[in-house]
């Protein structure tokens, strides 16, 4: 990316330039290592990043000189996609994490922003949502979706004007709020598209979780694709800023195959490859393991209309 494509931005939640923003992560860009996989989700982490600073008011860590929205959109459009089994495991974890919230909602219609192959839409349909739809910028992800899910998925970037106001009971966005240039705009758009009493759900990494703090710069959350990193406090701050009430933000466990945990592990290749062979040899690759990896499941409700 050329320097001309980058500009300075304020905190994406409070919209202020913090007086005393501390540098949270120093920039590490190696253009020769950038490839189309850099922008695919759940890929082998490369741990390159733009400089990130922390807003002391919102507790949000964010890239203060990000590439332009156009550059990001282009990168995602052409991103490769390689994670169908993991996507399925993730969707099951999310359905479990949000079971209580989903139970409180009317089941008329739901929208997923960044739906991938639409695997979570499948879960929503199974629990009784009558109308489900998703928006997804990656052509490769949609091409990988099973035939019966394709009619649910629209290719593109989420734009509020494409939907009728107050037309959804639930809108969700998983592992995506880190990637967008303006997460507040997304949650504000969502609250206008929700019916009163409807809910917005998100899953985000928690940079304050002990796992991520322990790994530091080797954590999978340190990645060039992340424009901001949330803590439980900052995801609450984002929802509150947009007008949501009854906000919850909780840690939960992700269930994935051992082979995937192995791929995420921040180990040198010299150790990682033999470990992979051991897992394969013991036929443990397909074994599922639930771990709290420092992700936050957050939910906020649109206030019910006044009587
Ligand atoms: Zn702020």
Which CATH architecture would you pick? 3-Layer(aba) Sandwich
Query: What is the CATH T-level topology?
Result: Rossmann fold
Provide the CATH top-level class. Answer: Alpha Beta
Measured between the Cα atoms of the first and last residue, the distance is 52 Å
The helix/strand order is: EEEHHHEHEHEEHEHEHEHHE
The whole-angstrom Rg is 19 Å
Instruction: Let me know the CATH homologous superfamily.
Output: Vaccinia Virus protein VP39
The average pLDDT value, as a whole number, equals: 83
Return the structural class.
alpha/beta
SS strand fraction: 15-25%
Number of strands: 11
Largest sheet: 7 strands, mixed
Q: What ranges have pLDDT less than 50 throughout 5 or more consecutive residues?
A: 40-46
Can you offer a commentary on this structure?
With about 300 residues, this protein is an alpha/beta fold. It has one domain: Vaccinia Virus protein VP39 (Rossmann fold, 3-Layer(aba) Sandwich). It contains 10 helices and 11 strands. The strands form 2 sheets. It has a 7-stranded mixed sheet with strand order 6-5-4-7-8-11-10. Strands 1-2-3-9 form a 4-stranded antiparallel sheet, with no helix packed on it. A hairpin with a 6-residue loop joins β2 (about 50-55) and β3 (about 60-65). α2 (about 85-95) crosses α4 (about 120-125) and α9 runs antiparallel to α10 (about 270-280). It is globular. Residues about 40-45 have low confidence and may be disordered. One of its GO terms (molecular function) is methyltransferase activity. Keywords: Methyltransferase, Transferase.
